[in-house]
Amino acid sequence: xxxxxxCTKDVTSIAVASWEPARSATSTGRETAVMTEKPVSTADLxxxxxxxLLVCDLQFAQxxxxxxxxxxxxxxxxxxxxxxxxxxxxxxxxGRVVVVDTQGSLxxxxxxxxMARKAADNGWAGIVVNGAVRDAxxxxxxxxxxxxxxxxxxxxxxxxTGDLNVPVAFGGVIFHPGAMxxxxxxxxxxxxxxx
Length: 195
Known about the structure:
With 195 residues, the chain is α+β, with helices and mostly antiparallel strands. 14% of the residues lie in helices and 34% in strands. Strands 5, 6, 7, 8, 9, 10, 11, 14 and 15 form a nine-stranded mixed β-sheet that branches.
């Protein structure tokens, strides 16, 4: 079951409304959950939460076909090696968002169109890469949110180094596994409170 945020006047609690995901056939013929409602905008969330909303200061570019996305965070910490990320997106996403921290390296791409297609097919809402991606033109046609600092055609390392579901920090925000991330054309925000 996925979740859609809803704004409330009581900003002392995080309002999360349950929703029943629609089913959609993927390119592999497998059914997957897809979000059917538009996420709450980061601007509206800031108006409600003010400085308690954690807003990423880095200027990410949009690469995926879904410009607005949200979901619970799964983190990957790996410097220029995408093996752990590949393992994560092979699992059911259930509307979650993968946050990948490469310490801002733009030397290699952590994600390309094949991995993003797999993530979309497996029900991931989006992927945020504090680093580079590749296959930019193909990524735009995929039904998944993808944000990154830049692009590079060079492939990542394949050594299997990295950590899964550890707090990662960049852009003035600590991204905790299980926290709620919201992303749109205005930026990336994480709702306040413990996941």
